[in-house]
Amino acid sequence: QVQVVQSGAEVRKPGASVKVSCKISGYTLTELSIHWVRQPPGKGLDWMGGFDREDDETFYAQKFQGRVTMTEDTSSDTAYMELSSLRSEDTAVYYCAAGPARLGELSPFDYWGQGTLVTVSS
Amino acid sequence: DIVMTQSPDSLAVSLGGRATINCKSSQSVFYGPSNKNYLAWYQQKPGQPPKLLIYGASTRESGVPDRFSGSGSGTDFTLTISSLQAEDVAVYYCQQYYSRRLPFGGGTKVEIK
Questions:
Q1: Which of A34, A63, A122, B49 is deepest in the core (most CB within 10 A)?
Q2: Angle at CA A69, nearest 5°, toward A9 and A114?
Q3: Which residue of A has its CA nearest to B62?
Q4: Backbone dihedral angles phi then psi of residue B86, each to the nearest 5 degrees
């Protein structure tokens, strides 16, 4: 059984950065493709980016390019998402989501973390 | 990038009634060599992360009740709840996983009439 556990809520001032972690258990990180999805209060799901395990490459949504960095520590089966130059519109719940890494095709998100609320406020 | 468009934004259905949600992708998510549509549906209840309901456009995830069904191919897809139960009140999202950028549709809120 895969478990996805994220780090706790964060409060940041505008212009600062935040780094959210996502710890995987029940699988190794290399068996999964990890993605990050955010959800502003009362709004829909916004895919931010994810890792293509087959090509060993991270893909970001255009709107976050240059501000987001997604990394992994395979020794601890933990993924990270860092968002910089925060503004109030970045206030959202940030989810780590994962699907099995498959050869030749992507997969939907079978597993989700509990979400991390990031509040950006002066 | 592929854009996913859902309709309606919300709908109210009587208990036991049928709910139909539509999802349209800006380009085909069907891949001929694998004969698969790379389209998933998720359910999100308040205060919870989304839950995968259907993948491959029509395959129910393990444990998902059979009142949920998915259909469609290419660019046009439908999620149907055949007999709405109180526990089905949620927001439903479609998502393509054909291309490496995996956007969601805007969501459809399902309520009880």
A1: A34
A2: 30
A3: A110
A4: -60, -35
Q: Is the dihedral of CA B49, B51, B56, B57 positive or negative?
A: negative
What's the rounded Cα separation, in Å, for the pair A79 and A53? 13
Per-residue pLDDT tens digits for A41-83: 999 999 999 998 888 899 999 999 999 999 999 999 999 999 9
Position A40 scores a pLDDT of 98
* Chain B nearest CA to A7, separation (Å): 15
Q: What is the pLDDT of residue B106?
A: 98
Compute φ and ψ for B48, nearest 5 degrees: -120, 155
Q: Which chain B residue is nearest to residue A55, measuring alpha carbons? A: B100
Cβ within 8 Å, pair A110-B91: no
Whether residues A109 and B104 touch (CB distance < 8 A) is answered with no
CB B52 to CB A46 under 8 A? no
> What is the least distance, in Å, from the CA of A93 to any CA of chain B?
10
φ, ψ at B26 (rounded to 5°): -75, -15
Which band of pLDDT confidence, cut at 50, 70 and 90, is reported for residue A18?
very high
pLDDT tens-place string over residues B62-83 = 999 999 999 999 999 999 999 9
Percent helix, percent strand, percent coil in chain B, to nearest 5 = 5, 50, 45
* Dist. CA B90–CA B58, nearest whole Å: 19
The SS3 assignment for B26 reads: coil
Nearest CB to A45: which of B51, B93, B100? Answer: B93
